[in-house]
Amino acid sequence: MEKQNFKDKIKGSITIKIISILIMILLLMIPNFMVSDLIRERSSRKTEIEKEIGKSYGRHQKIMAPILRIPYLKKYKDSNNRLTSSTGIISISPQQTTIDGRIQTDTRKRSIYEIVIYNSQLDINTSFDLKQAQFNQILDWEDYSFDLSRAYFIVGISDPNGLSENSQIKMGDNVLPFTDNENINLQNMAWIKSDIVDITEKQDFSIQCKLDFKGTRSLMIEPIGEQVIVNLESQWIDPSFIGQQLPDNYDITEAGFKSKWVVNRFAHSYPKYWLNDAANFVNKNYSFGVKLIQPIDEYGKNKRTAKYALLIISLTFGIFFFFEILLKKNIHPIQYTLIGFALTLFYLLLLSITEHLGFDLAYIISSAATITLIISYTKFILESVKGTAILSALMIFLFGYIFVILQMQDFALVMGAIALFLVLATVMMLSRKVNWYQIGKS
To answer: Could you write out the DSSP letters of every residue in 162-181?
Structure first.
């Protein structure tokens, strides 16, 4: 008899019930963590697909303005006081560069993955100053003779695979096509060289460079010279401005974005000129530009949804717990566990359906299936039409509110905090007259 009374006391103990519910919630987070790992794995696979598409289409692109290259001959006396000579290349940074760019975006699908790609056309106007006074401070120019008739330009681009044949440099009436790659290690970029041009008797001049290339996800500009002005525009409505410099001004509308940077020589440490590529540009990075983001992509939304797993399970269990109190029903821990598994399965359904139908439709299907399963199961537990109707309304509201929060970017946190506050206030108001010491007593 005493043993039976002890069992009844344990069964009716509100403290034991709460502790067992909390333990079940914690244990149910284990499969939810496994689903979160699966989401990360699928997201990583998308990144790999993006890299694969980038190999054939064009990777994330970084551009550096044209640099002037001039062959030279240096005469000097060797250790035996005999006159000898050596040859080399002097590279000269531009004075001012203005870049006007247009980015035309598109998407590519491979299997179930969708990747953002773009075509970009950059009109680069660059000026050079070859006045001897610019170099006299360091070099004794009497020992050097420059072959100005064989000058050429190089342009930096991180992935030349995406470069179009339409790209060229124009100097006055001279059209200089790009002819070859320049095998130098500057700024971890690939370098393409123009055809030879004669700049004899030119002390200052400007060129127009047209770059037409493809890439994925981002476009960056590496500044060099006295001043770089960059104007970029696109129909993409979700740009993320990244790098060492933010735009001086920008405008984002439903039609796309326009942005402008003005960067002077103090924003980088590249020299005005250097000989034979002796300057060490490795690991220098002063680039800035734009990343074409999907503000909350399909996997990003799944990740955010998974973060609400603890909240959804806790609130659902809380609802059932209050039904136990208010309807005087005993719900077994096994029944709580099965309901918890149904909620966990929701996230797996959501991920798998999202990859084929998109997040919004997947959320509607997964939540409808989960709510229907739980309501059908608890209908026989509660044995109350009113209780089942209330549970249905609360679960539809809970999943619907989470869906609304997921669509927000700037106000998600504040809306989530307000929701939790309202839930706590409702629980406190509903339970204010409950005598917790009498629950479970005969």
So the answer is: GB-TT-EEEETTEEEEEEEE
The DSSP result for 123-141, as a single string, is EEEEEEE--GGGTTTT--G
pLDDT in tens, 292-347: 887 556 777 777 777 777 778 877 877 777 777 766 667 777 877 888 888 888 88
150: which residues sit within 8 A by CB, 6+ positions away? Answer: 70, 71, 196, 198
Q: Residue 264: helix, strand or coil by DSSP? A: strand
| Secondary element (H or E) of residue 104 | strand 96-110
Q: What's the chain's length in residues? A: 442
Spatial neighbors of 195 by CB under 8 A, at least 6 apart, are: 152, 176, 177, 178, 179
- Strand (E) or helix (H) holding 61: strand 61-77
Token output for 251 = 């405008």
The answer to whether the CB of 62 falls within 8 A of the CB of 156 is yes
| Domain 59-295, CATH | 2.60.40
List the one residue out of 213, 232, 208 whose CA is nearest residue 121: 213
Which distant-in-sequence residues (6+ apart) come within 8 Å of 184 by Cβ? 154, 191, 277
pLDDT tens-digit map of 356-413: 787 888 888 988 998 888 888 877 777 777 777 877 888 888 888 878 777 766 666 6
Q: What single-letter DSSP state applies at residue 147?
A: -
Q: Locate the domains of the chain by residue range.
A: 9-45+299-430, 59-295
Give 124's strand partners. Answer: 99, 209
Residue 165 gets which letter from DSSP? T
CA atoms within 13 A on the CB side of 156: 22
From CA 391, how far away is CA 381, in angstroms rounded? 12
Give kind and range of the element (H or E) at residue 92: strand 83-92
Q: What is the residue type of 412?
A: A
| Cα(344)–Cα(312) distance, integer angstroms | 10
pTM of the model: 0.66
Encode burial over 377-397: b for 16+ CB neighbours within 10 A, e otherwise. Answer: ebeebbeeeebbebbbeebee
